Amino acid sequence: MIEFRGAGVRTDDGRTLLHPLTLTLAEHRVSVIGANGSGKSTLLRLVNGLLVPSEGSVAVHGRDTRSEGHAVRRSVGFVFTDPLSQLVMPTGREDVELSLRSRKLPAAERRRQGEAVLRRFGVDHLADRSIYDLSGGERQILALAVVLAVEPRILVADEPTTLLDLRNDARVRALIAGLDQQVVFTTHNLDFALESDRTLVVDDGRVVFDGPPTEAVVRYRGIAAAASASGADGT
Amino acid sequence: MRGYGSTLGLYQSGSGVLYRVPLWLKAVVSLACAVVVIAWRSPATSALALVLTLGALTVGAHRSPARVLQMLLPALPVLGILAVYQGVTQGWQQAAAVVGGIAACLLAARAVTLTTPLQDLLDGVAHLARPFRRVGADPERFALALSIMLRSIPYLAGLFVDVRDAARARGLERSPRIVVTPLVVGAVAYAHRTGEALAARGLGDDDATDDPPVRRAPDGD
């Protein structure tokens, strides 16, 4: 359960990135759609405390992201758009084991669990290859494995399929669909958004629609068409 | 961005006796190599250390001598400058002793990092740093910082090559500013991304406190 209580974000120079927002996300799959720069990623970053709100608060399972950020980050996994921003170790095996270090396990047990995670996500055969030698899809699945290794209660994914081709897009979507965790994701892929239980449409730092994905997509198409028309008019 | 992890300083899976030797023993031998070439500085000592480290990597890690010598390539510019400086100021025998000794130490250190998985290295460093707990230090964080540093060296080396190639492609390779500026910007961006990736996973957070993270506001998306 994620609760936004009047949570808003402003930059130091006073620019509003996200207007105060009050809502509760309890659905299994929540998608966030909107144009580039609309505030989607800002909204997502509030969920695991990567960003603390300038006003109001955000709570995850009752824990405030400002005062209990450490605990929140341990229960909310965050997947970046670019897996190379996520993977900080030279190989997948080492990166998964790095995630597991937070559990303070003995080395042998950490290795065993790391191996199990890599097998579970079907990337065990890539475990010792340089992350730079992997395809975009392999990297993104590895990035998901790295985040899910510590079994977070919620997964937050910022455009996890944006950099992928159709086949890998389908792979990642299928993987996310099969997760037990609550998943909140942003996407530009409207088919992906339609697979969720609830969709937020963000425009210019405001949640302008919150409801069923089919209606949200219609609303978003309308906003995009209006923006496109005003751009063509030069207004 | 190209990956340079395999050519500079990081673990590569393989077989050979060095992969089975415990970390502490490899670290002690590596340290002993440094002590010997410093304490008995002479061209003969350096040559012997160089031959021994080359042999250890060839036999113990199953790497051909050519591949082992390639490991020194990134250090070649610095070793070259040092050799010329030492040769002119101290004589060429001294230059051979110093440069040969450094090369041997580099190979000895490389033998440790090449054959030890990074996580094992982290465990070793965290173990070594345990006494500092008494003064409030966190050994795990210390080990994490070291691993990120080790990881960053090949990344930055790769970034330098990419930036230089980009400058060459535009015919601007003669301007140091064209190379240095994007290199610095890239290094800062890399540091920021790495910090964010660690924070997103809750790594490096203080276990004892739950202080809020201090993050800049993003660009708006």
Notes on the structure:
The complex is a heterodimer of chains A (235) and B (221). Chain A has 235 residues and is an alpha/beta fold. Chain A has helices spanning 40-47, 69-75, 83-86, 92-100, 107-120, 136-148, 166-177, 190-194, 213-233; strands at residues 2-10, 16-25, 29-34, 55-60, 63-64, 76-79, 154-158, 182-186, 198-203, 206-211. Among the domains of chain A are: 27-38 and 153-235, 3-Layer(aba) Sandwich (Rossmann fold), CATH 3.40.50.300; 87-151, no CATH class. In chain A, the strands form two sheets. Chain A has a six-stranded mixed sheet with strand order 6-7-8-3-9-10, with helices on both faces. In chain A, strands 2-1-4-5 form a four-stranded antiparallel sheet, covered by helices on one side. In chain A, helix 6 runs parallel beside helix 7. The N and C termini of chain A lie far apart (41 Å). Chain B is built from nine helices and no strands. In chain B, helix 3 (43-60) runs parallel beside helix 6 (92-115). Chain B is globular, with a radius of gyration of 21 Å. Residues 208-216 of chain B have low confidence and may be disordered. Chain B folds into two domains: 4-116, no CATH class; 132-204, no CATH class. The interface between A and B is large, with 60 and 44 residues.
Alpha carbon gyration radius of chain B? 21 Å
- The share of residues in helices of chain A is 25-40%
Gross morphology of chain B: globular
How can the largest sheet of chain B be summarized? none
Structural class of chain B: mainly alpha
Helix content of chain B: 55-70%
Q: Helix segment count of chain B?
A: 9
Oligomer: heterodimer
Strand order of the largest sheet of chain A: 6-7-8-3-9-10
Jot down its keywords.
heterodimer, A: 235 residues, Rossmann fold, six-stranded mixed β-sheet, 25% strand, B: 221 residues, mainly alpha
